[in-house]
Amino acid sequence: MDLTALRTAHPDHWSKATAIRALTLDAVAAAKSGHSGMPMGMADVATVLFEKHLKFDAKAPDWPDRDRFILSAGHGSMLLYSLLHLTGYEDMTLEQVKNFRQWGSITAGHPEYGHAKGIETTTGPLGQGISNAVGFAMAEEILRAQYGKKIVDHHTYVIAGDGCLMEGVSQEAITLAGRHQLSKLIVFWDNNDITIDGPVTLADATDQPQRFKSAGWAVIEIDGHDPDAIDAAITKAKSQGKPTMIACKTHIALGHAAQDTSKGHGALTDADQMAEAKAGYGWTTGPFDVPADIKAAWEAIGARGAGDRKAWEERFASISGNKQALFNRTLAREVPKKLSATVKAFKKQMSESAPKLATRAASEKTLEIINPIMPETVGGSADLTGSNNTKTTDLGVFDTNNRGGRYIYWGIREHGMAAAMNGMALHGGLRPYGGTFMCFTDYARPAMRLAALMKIPTVFVMTHDSIGLGEDGPTHQPVEHLAISRATPNTYVFRPADAVETAESWELALSSTQTPSVLSLTRQGLPTVRTDHKLKNMTAQGAYVLAEAEGKRQVILIASGSEVSVALEARDTLQEAGIGTRVVSMPCMELFAEQDESYRRKILPAGAARIGIEAAMRQGWDRWLLGERGKASKADFVGMDDFGASAPANVLFEKFGITAEAVIERAKALI
Amino acid sequence: MDLTALRTAHPDHWSKATAIRALTLDAVAAAKSGHSGMPMGMADVATVLFEKHLKFDAKAPDWPDRDRFILSAGHGSMLLYSLLHLTGYEDMTLEQVKNFRQWGSITAGHPEYGHAKGIETTTGPLGQGISNAVGFAMAEEILRAQYGKKIVDHHTYVIAGDGCLMEGVSQEAITLAGRHQLSKLIVFWDNNDITIDGPVTLADATDQPQRFKSAGWAVIEIDGHDPDAIDAAITKAKSQGKPTMIACKTHIALGHAAQDTSKGHGALTDADQMAEAKAGYGWTTGPFDVPADIKAAWEAIGARGAGDRKAWEERFASISGNKQALFNRTLAREVPKKLSATVKAFKKQMSESAPKLATRAASEKTLEIINPIMPETVGGSADLTGSNNTKTTDLGVFDTNNRGGRYIYWGIREHGMAAAMNGMALHGGLRPYGGTFMCFTDYARPAMRLAALMKIPTVFVMTHDSIGLGEDGPTHQPVEHLAISRATPNTYVFRPADAVETAESWELALSSTQTPSVLSLTRQGLPTVRTDHKLKNMTAQGAYVLAEAEGKRQVILIASGSEVSVALEARDTLQEAGIGTRVVSMPCMELFAEQDESYRRKILPAGAARIGIEAAMRQGWDRWLLGERGKASKADFVGMDDFGASAPANVLFEKFGITAEAVIERAKALI
């Protein structure tokens, strides 16, 4: 590259972009690790975007109507940190930049949501950012329909690399964006021809522009180092009426000895080469030293949106008080006051009528009463609407001609759905939930983990949660998936036993502000076990005594979901045989673990033998069966220890020995 | 549809295709569940494929040079079962077809590999079959390069639906196939415009032909009910020099009242509608009754390849004895005799030289000695070759001009890699292994589960297996992934402590015939703990005493991988303080669980306090810490209970308290 030509053609632009490159080199060198090449390659695109297009105010980073900027290629985190520091985000001090990748800094190796203002989502696992962005753009459409263009009217910009585009989830994302003509979504492809293993051509020969066009996108191809071309492309992208991919031909590690090589992807820390690169840029100050005039120019960019922001605040003040309150409540992730009473009334009705109902059907009934009072819920399913029972009467279907629709037909895209739901939750103002078969947790896993890591309350509705799924067979029958979600930090796994616990689980999931929820729901019908109405949300403590032992307590049966009624049936027989048997319903292990020790000991006292009952693998149960820190009991587990099989559900429960008879036999053997 | 016109235009074809439709309707009706519409829609394509193109011999279903037929749209399993029954596969009796979806039958709801001959892979989770197929086609290329065209020369045919094509993994698969110009891969797209939720257009508007072209495929668009067009398309597809997608415009549930509707996707069991459909087909026999002449015509198709097969056997007999032996050995998944001695020699060398080495580097060293003696290994990485240490000197790189290359640059496609590796393992003759960061287990999960379910020994090389990854931060640091793989049935999770255990783990993984392996390997250097050379593979028993307590045994430290050296360090101090401390290395919980109780009790005797040490979540450990069935001990665990953070690795171990000091403190508190 002829850097001199670039410098002389656009000197002001050049100095600003160079500040990003210099800070990147310095921070990576200080950390002795990181990814230098991407920020150096995309500095020009980012500079033009921030200078001329991105609607933001560095002093009001949470302004709800700001444009969103998502660095899907999260390894290039120094690009984002440089931009935030240079434009004057208050928390992104020079000290933080100097502490790149160090313990306690807000400048983690990859951008972590919640660490610093301006990080709209956690990225790093490739393909996630661009998929989150689809949710951001959908959220913008839905909220614009709800509040009008004067309150909600912003763009979502994404920088994605070859890694993001090779990941399968990106296909789910771009086809969703294309289907829904999300015209305010603009993706910059960092087309630098390099991946970690070498040239992109080693592994891929995709015609990306043609691919995006096949998904219904507009495509613009430019030189990613030409500020005029970048500016013109963004201007054009905003008026295409569909999502736009701007293919930016760039040089990774521009101006460095490692330019255009896979070495340039990583940490460029050689002092001589750094000096050489900076000399080539015409950058003469020392490490982390941005000349005052250049910093001032950047800060002016950071302040550019202040007027827009103030005007928005005035417009916001002009809408009705109710609308303002709703906007603020939903943005704060607060539930409406009447949620509690609504759920209580529903519980009472269920306890009294005691229906035999699959919990997926109970979930639908619950949503039928919740969705009308929570306009922030957005439901959906990955092409299993009728099976997941996620669609309620009043939601309306999100579509190009119905932007206010709150139900999304996600198609057969579990991963894209989960990632886009995260994007909606991150955008704010909406509470997304989406369904698939629990077994396909596997497909959605990368995004489910990120919801937990980001501390956002996405709700995953996982129906057909055991061999109770029946004939579809072991490919569709989860056995390890409860353990998988329970092993994941900051995740609530709710496995309700009946309609009452289902409603309680929904109340907790929608009240959660920082923890995603997995609702584990049955295909098959279950009897109501909570026939004694209680105002209190019993699920909130994770586990509770559903049926007390009569006489001397010899056995505690601990069960979740569909196996709670199995436990109750076993208890009847055991009590008849004079064996005092307590039944503990345990709809949420994580909430139980959060209780203090005295409550936990009250529910699971020492002395009695314990049997866990769950149509799933034992992993995760031993803590409750064997006790914590050496307070172990005699214990056994009735569940699965292998994959399921294809047969009617009742046959499977019989053949795999998850029956009251089996529980009774094991209980007798233990005591 | 004008069925009469179809019938009269091609009466012989029609009667054969109708046999599939009739058997499908009957089997689904008998099971009262299943998916009728897809087999009814794709019967014409399948009939022409089997009658005129597919190279197979129903009486020799395992003939290694057969064409592979993969039903990626696995819910249409009755299409496959009908074809196998009609063409005369001996195990696919009419009785089995009548027992569709019942306990103990080989006709599961979705095709299960191993249940019946002719089921080349387990499908149902969408997108897997088409992705397996890429591995099948790569395997064919590699083996053709190894053995020549007269021994290996076959096609891989796939039927995929809209579901398969919407799943992101299909993008990874088709871009891989396009990049490598896998010209013997032919995919039929069942283009019926219908998914479960309704018309495809509800959720997708992708121009699939354009999408496939962007990936480097040839595309042919036909009427999927016109046998001449189908025949011509397949003939053309074989000569395109690249993979071909044949877009087949079809009618789901052809001829049934539910034709062209989402209802047609499911179980069509209404007796009147069935009768009406059969009448429209001109099908007059009763349930499960295929007229003898039609069955005979199908059986002739099943026997069509017998001559080819015999000719192949003669050709095979003509190659060298060594080549034959190699072919047969690898097909039988047997390791070469010299593997054991080679590994032993390597272990001796490591024990003597006692290097400080990351286990990922130890893994590379092991592969350097194994790959030259096992020509069936195929290595690869999802764009982390230098980090996963998966590439050895002699492998060569698989490419269009080097079909014998045994290293695959998979690109940033963890899921596609895992699914394609499964395809290679299923094809037979190759032993695939592939690497990524352990955290990206999440991306590969759906295929990893299927390897376990199918009982195939795919090897997943998961490096950077803890916070030891360091600065890249929590998005790249696994904490729950050991638990995830351990919760999965039929999966060996090896977490070796040093180079010796790494070599032992590789020997076990490559000797496994029915169980996939996860190798959990460190980024960071580890000391050699097995300095005392033993011929025996100590990892084979899952856990063993690495250092015995001196004096009275008060504490047992149980550790895996990078924490074994932490345990040894803690033991030194505890012994100095007079606390008898045993250290158990536990590289594989699953193999330990397979040992008899007396061995398990010998390694973990009652009495002493136990501390588990692993830089991961506790879930899965309690069985070993608290004992089984009530034989609990005082216990504690030193590991992670939340996500990691971004900082240098040594800082993280210190901050998260996974140190010898922490172990010592906990041990003293327990006793």
Descriptive account of the structure:
Two copies of one chain form a homodimer. The first copy, chain A, is an alpha/beta fold and 671 residues long. Chain A has three domains: 3-310, Thiamin diphosphate (ThDP)-binding fold, Pyr/PP domains (Rossmann fold, 3-Layer(aba) Sandwich); 337-527, Rossmann fold (3-Layer(aba) Sandwich), CATH 3.40.50.970; 542-670, Rossmann fold (3-Layer(aba) Sandwich), CATH 3.40.50.920. Helices cover 44% and strands 13% of the residues of chain A. Chain A has 27 helices and 20 strands. In chain A, the strands form five sheets. Chain A has a six-stranded parallel β-sheet, sandwiched between helices. A five-stranded parallel β-sheet of chain A has the order 1-2-3-7-6, with helices on both faces. In chain A, strands 16-18-17-19-20 form a five-stranded mixed β-sheet. In chain A, helix 1 (3-9) packs across helix 2 (11-31) and helix 16 (359-370) crosses helix 21. The first copy, chain A, is elongated and about 95 Å long. The relative contact order of chain A is 0.09. At the A-B interface, helix 7, helix 8, helix 9, helix 17 and helix 19 of A face helix 7, helix 8, helix 9, helix 17 and helix 19 of B.
